[in-house]
Amino acid sequence: MAKPVLLITRRLPQDVEARATRDYEARLTASDIPMPRDVLLRRVQGADAVLTCPGDHFGAELIGMLPDSVKVIGTFSVGYDHVDVMAAHGRGIAVCNTPDVLSLATAECALLLILAASRRAGEGERLIRAGNWDGWAPTQLMGVGAAGRKLGIFGMGRIGRELARLARGIGMTIHYRDVARLPEALEAGAIYHDSDAGFLAECEVLSLNAPGGGSTRHWLNAARIAMLPRGAVVVNAARGTLVDDVALIAALRSGQVAYAGLDVYDGEPKVHPGYLELENVVLLPHLGSATVATRDAMGFKVLDGIDAVLAGRVPDNLVR
Ligand code: DGY
Fold first, then answer.
1. pLDDT 10s digits, 157-178
2. Is 175 a catalytic residue?
3. Which candidate in 123, 239, 272, 320 is catalytic?
């Protein structure tokens, strides 16, 4: 029997491509950048499924142009703000993603940003690489510790809760804001806030862990930044669209925000040039889930979802 056809829009880890090739007539690519639309529309003809990634935008228009043969779009990510799910459903196309398997890796990245920003690791690295380090000095690059500080988590989903668990381990107290309070067992002692003002006033360190999309776009704006305690630390390993960059850059200049750590950017791979001029921000290139084991697990999870949809089953990673 002929294998189903799977278009893969980006180069994937070797073991993931091997499984895809074993089970599908896999149309692979060697490219690490989003597939141009004309190439995609040519290569998707006759495909049963598409495996895509953040950065490849499956908006309503593109989805409307997919051939009827496509039954499922799987995204190699937990976030699916780059896929117009309503448009897909409107065409009878299922969407699946990669929840759970990247929570720990992404939470580790958020903790890395908290520590790197608070302890001025980016500045220290740049000092050495520029050949300007004259040796240890009592007042050199003094930052702030994370232990004993209050961490506010905006978005207490799987990644937020994993970050809370890690941060408790270094002595941080956890506050959180979400659309509703979690059951006590999931809260694990974290303090819920039902207003932005009450929440932000507690955030000595603020970590953004909410999904992207229209409802959270520029959530961290000038008005909310003004509600933070002066000298707060802000980190974002979720989606760049959560932050109004102009407002955050102004706050980093004025000292309202002392340090920031960013892994994601509004309009990435473009980074607002204002950040590049600032010493008190540490910048990573969207590394949240980038461990070998996690990226394999993400690939297997999305393939599980595609397998299930094509076999007429409902996968646990179906986006509803
Ligand atoms: C996701 O999964 O949504 C990340 O942004 C990539 O790991």
1. 999 999 999 999 999 999 999 9
2. no
3. 239
